[in-house]
Structure formats: structure tokens, C-alpha cells
Amino acid sequence: METHLNQETSSVEAELQSKLLHDDHHVQKGGLRTMPFIIVNEAFESIASYGLLANMIFYLMEVYHMEAATGTIVLSIWTALSNGLSIVGGFISDAYLGRFRVIATGSLFSLVGVTFLWLTSIVPQLTPSSCQEPDTGCSPPTRAQLGFLYASFGLMSIGSACIRPCSIAFGADQLKHRNNQRLIDSYFNWYYASNTVSIAIATTVVVYIQDQFGWRVGFAVPVLAMFCSALMFLLGSPLYVKVKVDKSPCNQSNHRSTMGTHLNQETSSVEAELQSKLLLDDHHVQKGGLRTMPFIIVNEAFEKVASSGVMANMIFYLMEVYHMEAATGTIVLSIWTALSNGLSVVGGVISDAYLGRFRVIATGSLFSLVGVTFLWLTSILPQLTPSSCQGPDTDQFGWRVGFAVPVLAMLCSALMFLLGSPLYVKVKVDKSPFSGLTQVLIVAFRNRKIRLLPGDCYNHSNDIDQVELTDSLRFLNKACVVRDVDIGSLGSNSCGIPTVENVESLKSLIRIIPIWSSGIILFVNVLQTFPTLEAEKMNRKITSRFEIPAASFSLLMLLTITIWIPFYDRVMVPFLAKFTHEPRGLNLKTRMGVGIILSIITMVVSAIVETIRRDLANANTMVVMSAMWLVPQFVLLGLTEAFNAIGQLEFYYSELPNIMFMVSMAVASLVASILTNIVDSVTGQGGGVSWLSSDIDEGHVDYYYWLLSFLTLLNFVYYLICCRVHRSFSSSESRLSHPVDKERFDGIERKT
To answer: What keywords appear on the UniProt entry (predicted)?
Structure first.
């Protein structure tokens, strides 16, 4: 997913004049005042989705009578879909609807999805009948009941895929200003930190409500959150800068896309030109800016609160309500995570090529709101869940209230984002971000038999700066070679010849794939749900009256991230820069490597703690291990994500489409689902007890952790090899250090 790299400078000027400078009301758009709407939209969507995911494994196990392994697979697919569909969401946003419409649509989808889930807890017909006698077994859910449940997951995944890939870029649209670069640089760190706050709320408040008041109330909270998310986003509509969509296949306007960052100097120069023209226009100064940040950040934050609030206890929800085994519930959550992240690629493509970020985020907020509402309904409607093993009168009040909080958070997320609409800078989209890369491959294959000569001419975009054609992956250079050049007639056929910028962008993508793949196993470790099951078996009491919910221990990871990010940004970076002479303190590859090392340590610590816990549990003693022993591994997980995950975000932003981060999470979720399924099947053969048994006292989760430790160690060696062979395609290597007179270029560069 690349940004649009081949726009003629004249096309950029015409677009800027016709679509930005001539808007009499543009002066009142964007800015900091849009931030509350966008941030609330995202924040409440996070509350809704994560508020559901947290306990979902228990809901699947208890209500739908799923095995832990089955529930885990379902949740893994859900996660994978939520992330994988981001490709579609971003694509529609950029090519058709724009970010505003996609975010608004996503908010509605999420609202419907979370409402559907809520209905499963309300309507008895949507769930299997409760188990009358535990020893007689529980009736499995029907296809219709599972279909309704999966539909809610799917709708929430679509919503997340529309909101998440577009929200952060949509917020950045509101701040496009040449004097805002430092603000935008810090925006990524603080935006990520705000997301962790939302997730913290989801994994504490929402999870606590689900535990204390049942599924009906617990799922109602995400519905309410998603409703607020969509509502807030829509209310901000008059304030947003909404970039229009231009679907012309030959119009290649450059902008900072959701699907990709500036992979070469042309994108940088076009962005600089766009920023300077915006500043010179008196009618544009009231669009975007810091005033849009509250809307964007609140949108993302509440979306995180909703989603994290759902996710935190979801393993318990799958196990308790849907009667899933622990391994099954883990697989379900892994798939859910994979979908949530994988679909982000789709969302990013739609955002960049069709709809724009605003529309995609808005659409995603609505999808998330619907999805979390559907999940809430599963705790309200008895028909949407299997019958309880404890009898028909089993109280699901905790889940009902607990899921209602994410619904509310998602509602606020969408609402806040829409409220900022009049202020947003809505960058216009032009074409599919895939077209440039695809064109290079097609033309290179067509020209595969030609020989490159020293005197060949290469098609180059008419821009102020120029990218040098490199000799690496030289066969791709055949895509932009021009033979028998007739400059006078080239203009009419220029859309059929890839530019040097396109070729070098594809090379950058190919170079970075190995390093990208090394991050998959790390996310597999981060996405594990078994620590939550361990906490359930441990002493979690703080006082005689208060007991920490098992799912809330993931808050420790979020708190670590929240504390570490500003500490690293304000303290460690200046300190380390004195020794490393690196503006970031540590270069991005080093940060990612440190994250992998910490991940290895985390898995080793997790294995040791689980071994001790299991031995005590099986020793028939009255001593129950304190859950505080889980604190070190959650803190280490937080540091792992702070180093590696944020490092990946910055790395992809400077080297690749940043949507690759979401793809990593999507693939990791699918890998986690497959790995869980394999381990559960292999270790449970012959009537033996699976390592990932629902009763973790009988299973061997510690062996599973040792397996992950070994795989992560191998991954670290692989990462070192990738770093050694990788030649970074950074801006300093690919862009000229000085401006070039545009009149010196006519679209063709002679390479000598």
C-alpha cells in the first residue's frame, strides 16, 4: 500500500486550487477543535470492542458451551478479520468515500455489531439452552445461534477496519501545517498512549461490570460506548476537513495516505507544496489544526475502550456463557484479533483509494457500534447463547452491564468523531494505492526480454525533487525504461509508463518484507489469553471485599506502555541521543530488536510462574498463589510492545505503508490461532490431556510458554539476519538534499 507517488506538479496545483483554495468555508475547518470528536469516536470504539473482547472467551464458553480451544480460535479469527479488513476500509476511504464517510460508516457497523452481540445476552433464542446438570453435558449452539454471534463479530470487525486505519491519519489531516511537524511527530506517541488509556478503561471498568453485573449489563456498556462513539463523530462533521475523493485512474495526487507514508522524495515535495499552498490561502487556515485533535483522539480512545473492554474478559465469556474450552476460546479470540488487524489493510486501501479517511473512520465507528451492540445483546437475550450449565436462572447481569459499557464507549467514539466533521481537513483521494505497484509488475514482466543500456531514458515524474534509480532489483527498472523517446507525444501516454518513483517504492516494499515478518511471533506472544485464565485461578484479593477481575491484569501492560512512552520520549531520547547521535535515541531497528529480546524474557518468566502456580495447585495444599506474581510478565509485555510495536509503527511510517503494522497483527493472530489449534490437537491425542486444557491445572500452559520462548529465540536470530542484509530505503538515501528547478525536467530523466 503506497501513497500516490506519480502526480504531475501541475495536477497537484490544479487540485489544490479547485478543491481546497476555492472553498469559502474552509477557513473554519479542521484544527484542534475537531480533536474531541475524533478522539472520542476512537476512544469509545476501543472501549466497546476491547471491553467485549476481554471477557469474550468466558462468554463463548459459558453461554455458547464452547471448548476453550474453540473459543480461542473464534476470537483469533475475529481479531484477524478486524485487522485484515483494514485493507478494505483504507481502500474504500482513499478511492471512493473518503475518511469521514468510512469512519462514519464503520461507526454504524460497529454499533450494529455490538448491539447484535448484546442481543445474544438478552434474547434466549439466540443462545443454547443452559446446562441443567453439569455432568450430563451442555447442548451445543445451533448454526443459527452461531451465525448470529459470528455476524456480530463480523460487523464489529468491519467497523474496526474502517475506523482504526483511518482515524489517526484523519486526525493528522486536521493538523496539516508546515509549523506542525513536531506536533505531528509527537502526535503518534501520544495517540498511541491515549489508546492505551482507552484499553485500560475497557479492561478495568468494563470487565468489572461484566464480572459483577453479568453479560446483559456488561454488553450494554459497549453498545452505549459505540453509540456515543458514532454520535460524537457525526456531531463533529461540520468542523472536519474532509478531503474529497477523485477516482480518476491517471490522476495521481500525492498525500499522506492511511495506507502508506512517503516512500520517496516526490511525495515529500508534493506534501510540502500542499502545506505551503494551504498556508497561503486565507480560506484554509480554519480547517484542521490542534482544535481537531480532541475529536480524533477521543474517537480513537473510546473505540479502544470499547474494544479492549470487550476483549479483556472475552475468554471468560466464551468459556462461561458459550461453554467453550480454553483453547477453543483462545482460537476464537485470535481469529477475531487477526480479522480486526488484517481487515485494517482493507480499510486503509478503501480510505486511500476511494472514500478517504474521514468516511472510513466514520463508517468504522458505526460498524464497531453495531458490532459491540450485537455482542451486548448476546448477554441480554437468552436465545442468543446456549443454556447455562448452572440452570436457566443463572444470572448474567454482570455481562449485561459489562458489555453495555463498551457499547456506550463506542457510541461516544462515533459521535465525537462526527461532531468534529466541520473542522477536519479531509484529504481528497485519487486512486487505488495498489495500482502503482501493480503497474510496475505488469510492465516489468512485459519488458522482461529487453536489455538495459547505459544510455537508456527512464520515465520520471515532473516534481521539484527527483529520486535516483538504484541498481538493486534491477529487473524492475525495465518497467520505467523509455525507448525511442518522443517527448512531444509522451504526455498522452504517460499514464501507461510507471515512473522511477513507482519502481523504487516497490523495491522498498520488497526489501522490508523480511523485517516485517519478524514481528509476527512477537504479536503472537502479546495476544495470548492464557495469562487471564491463570489469574482466574490465583488469589486476586486486595481486601476482604475487593477482588481484581482476572481480565484486568492486562491493564498492567497498558500502564507500562502509558508510563514508558512519555518517559522514553522526554527523558530517554535526549539522554541516549548524547551517546548514539540518533534523534530517536535508539534507531528503529535497535528498538525492535530490544522488543524481541524482551519478548523472549517475557515468555521465560511466564513459563516459570505458571510452573510454580501449577505445582502449588496440584499439591493439594491450602496455599493459593498470589496473582501479583503475574505482574512482572505483564510489565515485560508492556515494555515489549513499547519497544517493538511502536518501533514498527515509526519504521513503517518512514519506510513502508504503516498499514503493514496492522497486517503484522492480523497475521500474528492467525498464526496464534493455528498454533493453538495444532498444540491442542497434538497434545490431546490418544485421550491425553491437552496442554491447553480448559482446566489449566490439568493442562500444561507452561510447556506452551516454553515453546513460544524457543520460537521467539529463533525469530530473534532470523531478525538479526534480516537486519544484516537489509539496505534501508530511508528518506536520506532516496531524496535529494536540495530543491531542483521544475523547468529542468520534462518527465524524462536520462540515467548515465
So the answer is: Membrane, Transmembrane, Transmembrane helix
